[in-house]
């Protein structure tokens, strides 16, 4: 059965009272017109929490993105309903391309694996209209090409406004590390969390900070949590009514900004007693810097953006004990926040 899309604030499953993060809302239309008040608001939230809602309803680009979001959801419902053996034909054993089955990475609990499957489409392959993309994606080429270009426009707009707010010029501007004609690991990721069983071995999406610069996220269902630096606890991100996206700052943007911007620690858990009771879908467009961009990581080490990307993906699959030994999984934010 198709998932019911929401046009209102959805209640938490079962009516339970839970802690909900208080997030600001930034207006995309005002950013596109370089409204100074909105740009300052953007900078403030990126320096303090690194997580916010983005209202897409105030400009034609945002309205088109809202329409295409629904088309991508419909595609996902059809694609992820296919038999596993069919989806595995799209598994390219890649961090950047194709299908990933459930259970490849570490879950939210000790000795558990993750509870989600994904389909990834790299921006470079979409730009090249590569034959290597899954046939199902190629069949919807117009939809995915437009959706990814609009997502890219949104994230670039945020980058340019942050550069303005930080007073950056020339090669120091953030967008200069994200040039479209340079190789990068920017990609679209479609995530599906199928229903799970009680006492199963797969739970959620483990705590982490995002690898890249800016994540544009669409999700109409509960499950996403962020670690609140002020109260030092986990809080749910309430799904907004249709017309909004959720934005978060990733490691690369934090590093490129000289650690002025805040890369938020987050995770996904089942909203009801460690059991995913319904199919959960989310769409993420990860804008990442050029592969050759130079970053200074949380430990002060100089690393290429491509290496940070690959090292972090390896860490996603490591046991909890190994993850807790270093700063890669959480971008060093646990050191700042205290163990989450």
Walk me through the structure.
- Helix 2 packs across helix 7 (141-166) and helix 3 packs across helix 7.
- This protein starts with 24 loop residues before the first strand and ends with a helix.
- The protein has helices at 28-32, 36-48, 60-80, 84-87, 123-128, 135-138, 141-166, 251-256, 305-316, 320-323, 333-337, and strands at residues 25-27, 51-55, 98-100, 117-122, 187-193, 205-208, 214-219, 224-228, 233-236, 244-249, 266-268, 280-287, 294-296, 302-304.
- The longest helix has 26 residues, at 141-166.
- The protein contains eleven helices and 14 strands.
- The chain has a single domain (25-337), classed as Jelly Rolls (Sandwich), CATH 2.60.120.330.
- The strands form three sheets. An eight-stranded mixed beta sheet has the order 1-2-10-7-12-5-4-3. A four-stranded antiparallel beta sheet has the order 6-11-8-9, with no helix packed on it.
- It has 340 residues and is an alpha+beta fold.
- Residues 1-6 have low confidence and may be disordered.
- InterPro entries: DIOX_N (IPR026992), IPNS-like_FE2OG_OXY (IPR044861), IPNS-like_sf (IPR027443), Iron_ascorbate_oxido_reductase (IPR050231), Oxoglu/Fe-dep_dioxygenase_dom (IPR005123).
- GO terms for molecular function: metal ion binding; oxidoreductase activity.
- Residues 183-289 form the Fe2OG dioxygenase domain.
- It comes from Dendrothele bispora (strain CBS 962.96).
- Belongs to the iron/ascorbate-dependent oxidoreductase family.
């Amino acid at each position: 059965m198709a998932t019911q899309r929401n046009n209102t604030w959805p209640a938490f499953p079962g009516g339970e009272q839970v802690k909900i993060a208080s997030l600001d809302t930034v207006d995309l239309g005002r950013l596109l017109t370089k409204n100074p008040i909105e740009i300052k608001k953007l900078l403030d939230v990126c320096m303090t929490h690194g997580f916010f809602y983005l209202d897409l309803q105030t400009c034609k680009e945002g309205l088109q993105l809202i329409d295409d979001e629904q088309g991508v959801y419909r595609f996902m419902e059809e694609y992820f309903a296919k038999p596993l053996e069919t989806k595995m034909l799209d598994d390219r054993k890649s961090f950047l391309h194709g299908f990933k089955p459930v259970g490849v990475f570490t879950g939210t609990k000790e000795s558990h694996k993750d509870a989600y499957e994904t389909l990834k489409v790299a921006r470079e392959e979409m730009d090249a209209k590569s034959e290597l993309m899954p046939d199902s994606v190629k069949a919807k080429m117009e939809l995915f090409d437009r959706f990814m270009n609009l997502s890219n426009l949104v994230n670039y707009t945020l980058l340019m406004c942050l550069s303005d707010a930080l007073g950056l010029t020339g090669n120091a501007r953030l967008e200069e590390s994200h040039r479209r004609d340079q190789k990068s690991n920017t990609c679209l990721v479609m995530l599906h969390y199928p229903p799970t069983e009680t006492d199963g071995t797969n739970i959620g999406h483990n705590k982490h900070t995002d690898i890249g610069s800016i994540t544009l996220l669409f999700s109409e269902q509960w499950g996403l949590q962020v670690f609140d630096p002020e109260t030092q606890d986990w809080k749910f991100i309430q799904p907004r009514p249709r017309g909004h996206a959720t934005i978060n700052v990733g490691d690369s943007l934090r590093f490129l900004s000289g650690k002025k911007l805040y890369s938020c620690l987050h995770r996904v858990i089942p909203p009801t007693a460690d059991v995913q009771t319904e199919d959960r879908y989310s769409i993420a467009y990860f804008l990442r810097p050029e592969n050759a961009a130079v970053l200074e990581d949380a430990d002060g080490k100089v690393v290429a953006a491509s290496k940070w990307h690959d090292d972090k993906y390896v860490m996603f699959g490591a046991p909890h004990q190994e993850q807790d030994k270093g700063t890669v999984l959480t971008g060093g934010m646990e050191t700042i926040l205290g163990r989450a």
